[in-house]
Amino acid sequence: MVTRLDPKLFDATSEITWCAGCGDFAILKALKLALADLSIEPHQALVVSGIGCGSKLPDYMTINGFMTIHGRPLPVATAAKLANPDLHVVVVNGDGDSYGIGGNHFVQSCRRNPNITQIVENNQIYGLTKGQYSPTSDKGFVTTTSPDGAIELAFNPMSVALAAGATFIARAFAGEPKHLAQLIGEGIQHRGYALIDVLQPCVTFNRINTYDWYRKRIYHLEEEAYDPTNREAAWQKAHEWEERIPLGVLYRTDELPTYEDQVPTLADGSPVSRIIELSRNPRPQQYESLKEGFL
Amino acid sequence: MDYTQLLAEVQEDGSFPGREEAEALVVSVLMAMAEVLPGPQLDALASQLPPEATVYLRRTRSQPDPLFDSHLFLGWVVSTLDATGARDKTVGGLDLTAAYSGEEAIRRMRCVFSALKRRLEPAQQRELVAVLPEEVGGWFLEA
Amino acid sequence: MASVVTNDMSIVIGGDAGQGVESSGAGFSLSFARAGLHVFGLQDYRSRIRGGHNFYQIRLSEEPRLSHTNPVHLILALTPETVELHLDRLAEGGAVIFPDKFEIDPEPLKKRGVRVDALPLTRIAEEHGNRVMTNTAALGAAAGITEFPLEFMESVIRDNFAAKGQQVVDANLKVADAAYKLARERYGADFQYKLAPVKGAPRRLLMNGNEALAMGALAGGCRFISAYPMTPATSVTEWLAALPHEYGVVTKHSEDEIAAACMAIGASFAGARAMTATSGGGFSLMVEAMGLAGMVEVPLVIVEAQRGGPSTGLPTRTEQSDLLFVIHASQGEFPRIVTAPGTVEECFEAGWRAFNLAERYQCPVVVMTDTFLASSLRTVDADAIDFGAVQIDRGPTLTHEDIEALSDGYRRFQLTQTGVSPRAIPGHPKGVVVASSDEHDETGHITEENDNRRRMMRKRMGKMSEAEKEMRPPSWYGPEKADFTLVCWGSTYGPCKEAADEINEAGGSANVLRFPDLWPLPEEAAAAALAGCRRTVVVEQNYTSQLARLLRMTTGIEVDGTLNKYDGRPFAPEEIVAGLSKEVASGHAA
To answer: The pTM is what?
Structure first.
């Protein structure tokens, strides 16, 4: 991977509060690398996060960043993109933020296909609140809020995304940052909503899904003869978990227009460009004809 | 035999109460090595270790991830540490002792590195340091 | 016959939900507006798709009216139930028109001296092709009996039914004509209430508060609205969504109100003028997001069109019961501005002013209306909607040239005298913007450090003292000194104004003190105004007298009495008059 910009451009001086060994370090590194490789400069991108350990990521970067509220980065990011389609918008949040409280926005984004990229730091636990189970915790996972083991089946983001119509669905592993950076780059370049679910060990609270646990199960789809444009195959792969976990692009289609492509009012300007223009040149006469509808 | 010896050394060096803790640590360091070492260096290391240990040096991918850094290396080792305390009755969840994890993981890593260094020629050690992530190489040298 | 009264009456069209009462009423109102009459159109309908009574009440006058009144002079009954429900309101000499197929007990009507007119409306409709045109027949008959020239109704029929094809237009015209002629011939001479076009009347727009608000927002540069349909706010979004694409308004019907608010915040963060519109239940879902906007100092305009609560409440009815909720919504403390227009014209102004306030103070601005103001139709002078008077003031929003000229690193939350920091629009290399809902420092990065926290709280809350200087003081209507001062906010202004007029004309003494900007409340001006009154009575549509409480909370002044109405129906001026005459201490109006 030839790096066009220096990823250090994205470095910041903020003290990082992640635990030593946290998988988020790799995600942070991979994101910087992916942006640098695409020659996207800090002011040209916007990283929107929710609430959680991983959602502090924008705080540790020099980049336009917006740390919002729990579960809500997707609508914020979607609208920021609509308001200024020139921004490269990336959402970064955790599994609880995205698949639990943010579940509705997640499902809607899959079918909405906004031209944004979402990186989910999936550690199958709630880290910031110190150890409760999450939507992606496996059934039976014991935590302070699931003392007898999690009762529900784990949320399967791959199959849900596929069923909901997402046009780019990928999975990566924090323990393989280069592969992750590659997928992030592909996601950013993908025209449409790109989901990258990153298996990311929480070394402090999740004693089950460790680096080793993932290592024993993950395999790479590109090392098999796998066609990511095949929905049926993707549906099969989306349900692999217990013993084998596929990494890479599970599904992609480049045939669907993005949400923004289909908004006619974006044709000749954006909400941001228009108000800049209007504040210089309001042209009040442009509205007079609207009175006709009330006469 | 030498495997038991290896574990005993690590256990003493690290003052671990039980053999299991030493073994978990050795295993995690070896697995982390397997993540990051290129083929030739991995084989060279394996050749110096007892078979019960080399089994953890096998990996499925042909090439290591070139971005595998000291954070990730630490992550493999930290996973073996207990970093939580009792229930946090004020804020909820479990109180964590993860603040110690980094330093403790490095301390433990060094115990394993010492044991490994005893089984490696200086030239082999230098070769290893050359391909390890920078900070990890430093910990190895200090061990 | 009693003396003729021209151009001063109210007409009620009543029927079941699903009979098209709303569009009939609106269409009929338009025909009068086109003839130069002043129109006030009030709807009353249920939260049902079909079945159950609803009605449209049209008040006609040569004077501008800001309210309906209860007495009606002509009832067009599409169901027998309509007659029963509205008979008590029928004024002396009034008429009830209904299709002759109805079985109505004539006794109660005869007792009231009401002339019972059964016209073959359904037959006329069916004769021309469709029973649904019974409505048109009823309207035609109404025009006939009041001898109002049919041409105005005809022009509305042509416009309204154009989309359904020429045949439908022609059929409706024939129906209207047939009913008109029949009604006029049979009853015209005996019916004392007449309607006639007003010569030389200026062009007037027939619009409701929502439409005016949406238009104001557009003129103010709003090019993004995200919203979830909720009665009575939906038409704000729909009006903007129906605009020609050239205006460039991005509208998003979001998955829920949480998304609606968060999207508006995202668009605003990126530098657009963005808004959302909802009612109390939707606002409840937006509460957390409002706090986000306040904390990261993102301008956010929220239209809260109140309706009967609590919970699902009375979805299609009016109330003013969210005032204190809106003023205090969301956890913690942060600046916000709350304003309440009282008339359709004021809704237009509120639409663009809200964005100026939001960007000048970089905080949430809530424009509060209610079902009564949002959906009642009123004739407004075309010139009163003055696009030339609209100002677009972005406050300390930085242009690209401004950012280029920055010498130090840009800090989004830079401490300033006023508490408002220069705001960069993301996209410029020297203006990278970081915002966090956690407490943060000037650069936007997270910190819990206590000195910084104190500075940031003072910074944000300091904006309120600045904003207060711009908040409009309460305004007066009526004689300078009066026995009673009707204190009000929002749409109650209209009925209060008419009530005061009525009282004064009858020899009494009343004036109106109205609060247009509610938060931050201009406390000194409020206290001074209240102190100068003899007896203050707060008139509001809620149970707990929220404006009265707000006034006491801020100024320490307790009003002398309250008049509360919380049955989901808007105050009629005569109800206020009646309430006052009881020397109300804390009265609950009918």
So the answer is: 0.95
